[in-house]
Specification:
Elements: H1 3-25, E1 28-29, H2 30-39, H3 46-58, E2 62-69, E3 72-80, H4 82-107
Antiparallel strand pairs: 1-3, 2-3
Helix pairs in contact: 1-4
Pfam family, one: PadR
Organism: Bacteroides fluxus YIT 12057
Protein name: Transcriptional regulator, PadR family
Length: about 110
């Protein structure tokens, strides 16, 4: 078994949650999302992010608006929808439960 493969699968499993947490704080441009994930040591490339953002938008969890940029063409800023906020709340509960389970197993 390859530990890097397992780590990759774990990161993929929490990527959607992390993106939604970032967008809960404020609307963001895709490059800003990538930068914030990198700062948190969760490396994501555009080829991974854009399909995920599209899927979340198609599921009505995200919306976007075009905002003029001083550095080029308008930028698409993503934000959570009301449905996305509810979904994020459910993910937060699941995350806490999973954390408690892992902590219990690790410490027992």
């Amino acid at each position: 078994m390859d530990v890097n493969n397992v780590k990759s699968q774990m990161r993929k499993g929490m990527l959607e949650y992390c993106i939604m947490l970032l967008l809960h704080k404020e609307p963001a441009y895709a490059s800003d999302i990538i930068q914030k994930l990198k700062e948190a040591r969760l490396i994501v490339v555009e080829g991974t992010l854009y399909p995920l953002l599209t899927r979340l938008k198609n599921d009505d969890l995200l919306s976007y608006e075009w905002i003029e940029s001083t550095q080029g063409p308008p930028r698409k800023y993503y934000r959570l929808t009301e449905k996305g906020e509810v979904f994020l709340g459910e993910l937060e509960i699941s995350w806490r439960e999973l954390n408690e389970t892992v902590d219990h197993i690790a410490n027992s």
